[in-house]
Amino acid sequence: GAGVSQSPRYKVTKRGQDVALRCDPISGHVSLYWYRQALGQGPEFLTYFNYEAQQDKSGLPNDRFSAERPEGSISTLTIQRTEQRDSAMYRCASSLVGGGANTEAFFGQGTRLTVV
Amino acid sequence: AQSVTQLDSHVSVSEGTPVLLRCNYSSSYSPSLFWYVQHPNKGLQLLLKYTSAATLVKGINGFEAEFKKSETSFHLTKPSAHMSDAAEYFCVVSESNTGNQFYFGTGTSLTVIP
């Protein structure tokens, strides 16, 4: 597609439910990132992939969070047994090449998750 | 380790006056630096990036930033603010030795007063 697409744009869920957030990166982009942005804060790194391989998951806050990118394109971030503190904007980004500092990241519009 | 400090959480300027958004970074290696803008209910948009070429970088919408290694700064400027510049601005650092992690500052909210 023309840009990074995230769905749903908004998600309201009850505490304890599982949620799956989807990211469709720009076609051909090697790297895909997940970030979480709390209100009034900058985006915080969660995890990233090169192709289908998860390169770094050090930013995932606990084992309720997981991500996959099985075919090296679309990625899903899953949060199990959601808690109110999980409420945030979840942002996905992609970049053309993996590794190297010259690449820029293209961001989607995010998924606003609210846990009630 | 990398980190980014945006020195002002809020900046207000009058329309037509200069804009200065300050950013300092720490980096063990030669970093790449970016400024992103976030308008309400919109995604993050790249304004400009520094990648070890010219130290003065020109971006979109009349913005520019100067990389000053001695001061570890990458301040964002614009000669004349426009109402449409009102948004949240993020300074971002990335290093090749740590893969493609982008480290964000906490953001500066720019208000433009008519």
Describe the protein's architecture and organization.
- The complex is a heterodimer of chains A (116) and B (114).
- Chain A has 116 residues and is mostly beta strands.
- Chain A is 0% helix and 47% strand.
- Chain A has strands spanning 5-7, 10-13, 19-24, 31-37, 44-50, 53-56, 65-68, 75-79, 88-95, 106-107, 111-115.
- Helices cover 0% and strands 53% of the residues of chain B.
- Chain B is globular.
- The mean pLDDT of chain B is 90.
- The chains are: A mainly beta (116), B mainly beta (114).
- Chains A and B meet through strand 4, strand 5, strand 9 and strand 10 of A and strand 5, strand 6 and strand 11 of B.
Structural features:
A: mainly beta, seven-stranded mixed beta sheet, B: 114 residues, mainly beta, 53% strand
- What does the oligomeric state look like here? heterodimer
| Poorly predicted ranges of chain A | none
Shape of chain A: globular
Mean pLDDT across all residues of chain A, rounded?
92
Q: For the report, how would you describe the main beta sheet of chain A?
A: 7 strands, mixed
Short summary:
The complex is a heterodimer of chains A (116) and B (114). Chain A is mostly beta strands.
Question: How are the SSEs ordered, and which strands pair?
Answer:
The complex is a heterodimer of chains A (116) and B (114).
Chain A: E1 5-7, E2 10-13, E3 19-24, E4 31-37, E5 44-50, E6 53-56, E7 65-68, E8 75-79, E9 88-95, E10 106-107, E11 111-115
Parallel strand pairs in A: 2-11
Antiparallel strand pairs in A: 1-3, 3-8, 4-5, 4-9, 5-6, 7-8, 9-10, 9-11
Chain B: E1 3-6, E2 10-14, E3 19-21, E4 23-26, E5 32-38, E6 44-50, E7 56-58, E8 64-68, E9 73-78, E10 87-94, E11 103-104, E12 108-113
Parallel strand pairs in B: 2-12
Antiparallel strand pairs in B: 1-4, 3-9, 5-6, 5-10, 7-8, 8-9, 10-11, 10-12
